[in-house]
Amino acid sequence: MNDIVIVSIACANEAEAQSLTGLLVTARLAACVQSHEIRSVYRWKGEIDRADEIMLTAKTLTDRLPMLEALVKQHHSYDVPEIIATPVVWASDSYAAWLREALD
């Protein structure tokens, strides 16, 4: 069974994104985290809202998800941070081995 997942985490700004990235990689909760700017439109407290955000894409293993979630919730500025894990259907053997080694 492939236990690799990609986790999406939307951040309020670049400083928060960089802080979370460092914490996740240092704690070995993510082998790699990429970031990019996004524009979000969403419903919050009954209103339509818009925000420029930074999306983090973290590569990790399913057994790290509870600890990853706890760390993000502890350090994130949002009341309800986006933390969504998507299963990876396939990864090359060499990448999967590197990812597992990076998390050991």
Structure description:
With 104 residues, the chain is α+β, with helices and mostly antiparallel strands. Helices cover 34% and strands 38% of the residues. It has helices spanning 14-26, 65-75, 93-103; strands spanning 4-11, 32-44, 47-61, 84-87. The chain has a 4-stranded antiparallel β-sheet. The two termini are 19 Å apart.
Quick summary:
The chain has 104 residues and is of the alpha+beta class.
Please describe the topology of this protein.
Layout: E1 4-11, H1 14-26, E2 32-44, E3 47-61, H2 65-75, E4 84-87, H3 93-103
Antiparallel strand pairs: 1-3, 1-4, 2-3
Helix pairs in contact: 1-2
- Using only C-alpha atoms, the radius of gyration works out to 14 Å
- Total DSSP E strands: 4
Mean pLDDT: 97
* Terminal residue distance: 19 Å
Write down the oligomeric state.
Answer: single chain
Percent range for β-strand residues: 35-45%
The number of distinct helices, counting runs of at least 4 residues, comes to: 3
**Which class best fits the helix and strand makeup?**
alpha+beta
Give the overall shape, derived from the CA principal axes. Answer: elongated
Strand order of the largest sheet: 2-3-1-4
